[in-house]
Amino acid sequence: MDLHIAASIVPLLGWAVHGGILTRRLACARRDPLTGLHTRAGWTARAEHLIRRHPNAAVLLVDLDHFKTLNDTHGHAAGDAALVATADRLRAWCGHNGTAGRLGGDEFVAVIRDLGTADLDALTAALHRPLPFDGTSLPLAASVGVCPVAELPVPLLTDALAAADAAMYAAKGRTRRGSHTTR
Question: pLDDT tens, 141-152?
Answer without folding.
Answer: 999 999 999 999
